[in-house]
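Q: What residues go here?
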């Protein structure tokens, strides 16, 4: 994909540090490629780049696993009352919002 930190921070307006962005961009790109596998993806398309940024933000904030709980110092509580929401599901929702209207993620009958 054609997303670099300059695009993420400047054009998209993302708030991750460059290190956090670099740590999660591969996961964000792979996720958008997976979402668009049926119809393919134009890596230079602005909607695709924004979807990668949105997914990267979600993965940076939530990771890919279960979402919920909190940590205070060395004390940690995992909340399993969140109906099984995962960071991957939140990344999917964020990316799909950016892909709306493009047809990239459409898997229906043509």
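A:
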């Amino acid at each position: 994909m054609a997303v670099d930190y300059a695009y993420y921070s400047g054009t998209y307006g993302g708030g991750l540090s460059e290190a956090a962005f670099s740590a999660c961009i591969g996961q964000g790109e792979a996720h958008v490629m997976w979402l668009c596998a049926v119809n393919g993806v134009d890596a230079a398309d602005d909607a695709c780049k924004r979807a990668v940024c949105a997914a990267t933000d979600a993965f940076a904030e939530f990771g890919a696993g279960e979402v919920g709980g909190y940590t205070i110092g060395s004390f940690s509580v995992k909340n399993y009352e969140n109906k099984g929401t995962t960071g991957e599901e939140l990344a999917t929702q964020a990316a799909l919002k950016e892909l709306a209207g493009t047809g990239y993620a459409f898997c229906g009958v043509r």
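A: Context that may help when evaluating the design: The helical segments are 5-12, 18-35, 46-62, 87-99. The CA atoms of residues 4 and 42 lie 16 Å apart.
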